[in-house]
Amino acid sequence: MDKTELADLLESLRTHGADHYTCEAKRAKGGIPATLWESVSAFSNAAGGVILLGVDEKSGFTVTGIDDPAATEAQIGAICSEMEPPIRAEIVTLALDGKNVTVCTVPQLPRDQRPCHRRALGPWAGSRIRVADGDRKLTDYEVAVLLANRTEPRCDLTPVPAARREDFDPVLVDAFLRRIRETRSEIFQRVDDDRALAMLNVLTAFEGRLVPTLAGLLVFGVYPQTFEPQLDITVVVYPSSEAGVLGRFGERFVENRSIDGPIPLMVAESIRILKRNMRRRSIVSGIYRVDEWEYPEEVLREALVNALVHRDYSEFARGTQVQVEMYPDRLMIRNPGGLYGPVEVGSLGAVTVTSSRNRALLKILEDTPFGDGHMVCENRGTGIARMLMGLTEAGMEPPIFTDDISTFTVEFPNHTLLDEEALAWLASLPVPPLTRSQMTALVMMRNGGVLTNSSYRASTGVSDSRVATRELKELVDAGVVEQTGTRGSATYQVVSAARQRPSDTAARPARLSANEASVLAVLADGPLSRADIESATALTKEQVNYALQTLRQKGRIDLIGKQRSRSARWRAVD
């Protein structure tokens, strides 16, 4: 970091009004803060970050300076060395406004080396994680998940001593064995059923007898919840956009179900319940209009199977179900246990990496018929890519993935990205014929998104980075997208002239309601979050949401960032 970058960072902190997810400022006038190690641990266990010493947050991030830069740098280095694993931070001191500021840039640790903790305290007491502008102690379960990521988990191979071979559904087992003997090595044709099931980790030896493994029971058990009652799926359909807000008839839920049974049955039954609570709508696809479900069935299946296959089956997590929450504006699927292995949220769908904490379960489901001629899963690392492609073909926004160490959540927004208005805007652009992925990316960028090659691939389902580079270059050459940076650091966004919608000119003279006028007035001074708008206008959350929606439709405001992101800001359109 140089002086210019430090000055820009301080200015952004002043605009934000507080520390944030990747930056922590400390006055440090009386010496190194005793809690500095917490920030080092928290940043390394999250996305990395910057610690500024000699900057006072309470006085608007003024530079107060430090007295002995050399000693300060040495003390920070010693703290980083006391961590396990040791942190190799970049530590420099810069002079700003005639005063010294020590900058410690903490790198993000690879997933298989976490949790970074203070060696003297151990991982259970000495691990922290960055949350918003603070450092939070990791829970025992979060520490257990991170420690398990350093090794190959074998929880799905755990024997279930209370279960027997007779607890399997013979129809499911016969279909599985038939598939194995038709497609695998001929060795399975020479052994009996029990021997084949033991070789395939469906059964395992326990005290001199064969008993089901947890993976075998979950796939083939007539009723696996006899032995593990919480290993099921809960489906809750809410009447409003927030849990706990009653519907117009006073109802808390439209539907609230626990789905039991083996994995193939739970997936099929969950889809049936979701479709019962979905509407069919018209989706614009090219020049045609087709009627489809709000969420494509293939997408739901991939998401549900992923949640069941990649969830944590350790003792810590067996009391937690896979949770499906359906709201009028979104669908969320959450499973215990975050991502496992080298996979990062940003690379989901962009790279075909097979990394699962439940390898035996995944292998079994690869040869388990779903009932429609397909296998339950393919085990090729392309499930997320297929999910993205299915959403793209339906003209919908890509999902939002969130990894919170203890849970992994996929959220599907319930609205069409390539609707008639968006297609009209695309048609107004001076560009050659576009691919579907270019159309999707352009509309996302018009809505405030800033894309990279990786996020372009993750959002559109394009798997080859070279194809993504070529398609982005075509948009840049056409003059509708501007590129900032080069190679791996390049970002792309719609140029200001292209962002304007065809309906903007006609919409602006429209009369504004009192609430709309209030919201527009506070946005005149610059972008604000929804919460800031509520505070500035004294309007209720519902009033602000409705005013934002109608102002956006009239072309008076647009959104910077993702709709439900904490960092999203609304701004007035000039």
TrEMBL record:
It comes from the Bacteria. It holds the Pfam family SLFN_AlbA_2. Gene3D superfamilies: 3.30.565.60, Schlafen, AAA domain (3.30.950.30), Winged helix-like DNA-binding domain superfamily/Winged helix DNA-binding domain (1.10.10.10). Residues 36-135 form the Schlafen AlbA-2 domain. Signal peptide: none annotated. This is Schlafen AlbA-2 domain-containing protein. It comes from Paractinoplanes deccanensis.
